[in-house]
Design brief:
Oligomer: single chain
Distance between the termini: 25 Å
Radius of gyration: 19 Å
Strand order of the largest sheet: 1-2-3-4-8-7
Helix content: 25-40%
Order of helices and strands: HEEEHEHEEHHEE
Largest sheet: 6 strands, mixed
Structural class: alpha+beta
Shape: globular
Number of strands: 8
């Protein structure tokens, strides 16, 4: 019993030292960086055992967060979580809206355009709910591999993707898209969560 109490106390001390940005509050900033005019940070909510990757622009406009900016901050955050020695695990990582991550928006639009499960003429999934359909596209290994590699070395795996509030539009709506402007309507934005499991 004494060992468990001491371990918990040590864990609390560790979390204060590792995450001093906000202190012990409902939402704690684990890691933060600046990308252009935006602040990119990873926050944790202990009450719900969830994490959030938040891209914040001071003028409330879209951020353009590339893969080269996302991966290092996730690595930093999950490394701190792992070294905090707290006996807890986190069940999900919210990415917020995909519109702040143009490379994911572009992947989603192109994946849907070439997929038989999507009808670009009417902008709808052929045989399932649109949220479920977009989740299946975003859970593909070719998209998630860089993210899962970062999480895996810090003791987490991605077990699924949850999606809400999908936006459908033309390729002109896809942020920073520079390819051929194909005809039809495709999904390009959504609220997204990665479901996590501690290894």
């Amino acid at each position: 019993m004494t060992i468990r109490v001491l371990h918990s106390v040590f864990g609390l001390i560790s979390i204060f030292l590792l995450f001093p940005t906000i202190g012990w509050s409902q939402e704690t900033v684990i890691a933060a960086t600046t990308v252009g005019e935006c602040e990119l940070r990873v926050e944790m909510t202990d009450q719900w055992h969830t994490l959030r990757l938040r891209a914040f622009h001071p003028r409330a406009t879209r951020c353009d967060i590339g893969r080269e900016s996302m991966l290092p901050i996730l690595d930093e955050a999950f490394s701190k979580i792992r070294s905090s020695q707290l006996e807890r695990s986190y069940a999900s990582l919210s990415l917020g809206r995909l519109i702040d991550y143009p490379w994911i928006c572009q992947y989603l639009a192109n994946a849907a355009r070439t997929d038989g499960g999507w009808d670009s003429r009417i902008g709808k999934a052929v045989a399932m709910d649109i949220n479920k359909y977009v989740s299946s596209l975003l859970f593909r290994k070719e998209l998630l591999a860089p993210i899962t590699a970062v999480l895996a070395k810090n003791g987490y795996s991605v077990t699924g993707v949850s999606v809400e509030k999908v936006l459908v539009g033309s390729f002109q709506d896809v942020p920073l898209y520079q390819g051929k402007m194909f005809r039809g309507r495709v999904p390009f934005d959504a609220q997204v969560w990665l479901r996590l499991e501690k290894d």
